[in-house]
Design brief:
single chain; 257 residues; mainly beta; Jelly Rolls; 2 domains; five-stranded antiparallel sheet; 3 helices; 38% strand
Length: 257
């Protein structure tokens, strides 16, 4: 009876609960606490992510896939366009290439038309390359944008060519939020300190405000927290590139119920 009464008393006592805000302009950072956070040693604690704010700034075009090479004279002369690093849709890539071609004088000045066009086929999820006159496109360079557009590393001369593969415009399928003070989380069968995962519901360039509808609390493995190491990765464990934008994460640590 005494044990039962103690259990009832424990369940009705107010539970410790407090919030922590972590913020940085990188996706791998340490937050130190001075003095350290001291949790009650005889109690168990759990933590959940309350919200995350940042900007959709992770690039899908970088040094690995930023080249577009074309020829205006059937392969006699080749021009390399370097697409600036950033977050692009297929239409944005097309607009950037056309802008550079116009600067190079490689377009129909009379009709203000371009001899190379890239569009998206929303039915097949592939991209379409249209080439006119004596123009050619070379997707063979190792840093070619072909991988994003779904094309093979090959030379294209046909008037109309649909990509062999679906576009890979979204290199990130999921964003994983990791903190090193938890247990009880698995990613692909392996223990990982992942407290939350999600995919942005906004387009590139817009602010991400992620608020879980149902909070998922995971066990805290420390009673003295001197620091928290936070990382944001993609589904493959690769650190995200925020390009200097800040990320702010709000956590709740509470006594286990």
């Amino acid at each position: 009876m005494e044990e039962l009464l103690q259990r009832i008393a424990d369940n009705t006592d107010p539970k410790d609960s407090f919030q922590i805000i972590l913020s940085d302009n990188t996706t791998s950072f340490n937050t130190r606490f001075n003095p350290p956070l001291q949790l009650k040693t005889k109690k168990k604690y759990e933590v959940a992510l309350l919200n995350l704010e940042t900007y959709y700034s992770f690039p899908n075009i970088d040094s690995n896939n930023s080249n577009f090479r074309y020829s205006p004279d059937s392969g006699t002369t080749w021009i390399d366009i370097e697409i600036p690093h950033g977050s692009y849709e297929v239409g944005d890539i097309d607009a950037t290439i056309k802008q550079r071609m116009k600067q190079n004088g490689h377009y129909d000045t009379v009709n203000d038309e371009y001899c190379i066009s890239i569009t998206a086929n929303t039915s097949t999820l592939k991209s379409v390359l249209t080439i006119g006159n004596d123009y050619q496109v070379d997707f063979k360079p190792v840093n070619s944008v072909a991988t994003v557009l779904g094309f093979n590393r090959a030379l294209y001369t046909a008037n109309y060519q649909e990509s062999e593969n679906v576009v890979n415009i979204l290199s990130i399928n999921s964003i994983l939020v990791n903190i090193d003070i938890i247990s009880g989380s698995y990613v692909n069968g392996t223990t990982q300190p992942t407290i939350y995962s999600f995919f942005p519901n906004v387009s590139p360039g817009y602010k991400i405000v992620e608020k879980p509808i149902n909070l998922a609390y995971l066990p805290v493995i420390l009673h003295t927290i001197s620091s928290i190491h936070t990382t944001l990765t993609d589904q493959n464990g690769k650190l995200l590139n925020l390009r200097g934008e800040y990320v702010t994460i709000r956590l709740e640590i509470r006594e286990k119920r």
